[in-house]
Amino acid sequence: MVSLSYQHLRKIQATRRVILCISLPYFLVVFHTIMM
Predict the structure, then answer these.
(1) How many domains does one find in the chain?
(2) Of 4, 5, 10, 34, which alpha carbon lies 20 to 30 A from 28's?
(3) What is the reported pTM?
(4) Residue 3: predicted pLDDT
(5) What are the average pLDDT values for consecutive 10-residue runs of the chain, which has 36 residues?
(6) Among 25, 17, 21, which Cα is nearest to 9's?
């Protein structure tokens, strides 16, 4: 049970990291477009 929840927590962190890596360039492009 503990190891399962630990795996689940690591999966959530990995997913959050992937979402951040994907969305960060998009936000930079949007920010650059707004500033231009």
Answers:
(1) 1
(2) 10
(3) 0.54
(4) 79
(5) 84 95 93 91
(6) 17
What's the CA gap between 23 and 18, in Å, rounded? 9
The residue assigned the tokens 């969305």 is: 23
- Enclosing domain of residue 5: 1-36
| DSSP, res 14 | H
Calculate the alpha carbon distances from 30 to 1, 6, 8, 22 in Å.
43, 36, 32, 13
4 token code pair: 């399962």
In the structure encoding, which two tokens stand for residue 13, read together? 């962190």
Measured between alpha carbons, how far is 30 from 35 in angstroms, rounded to an integer? 9
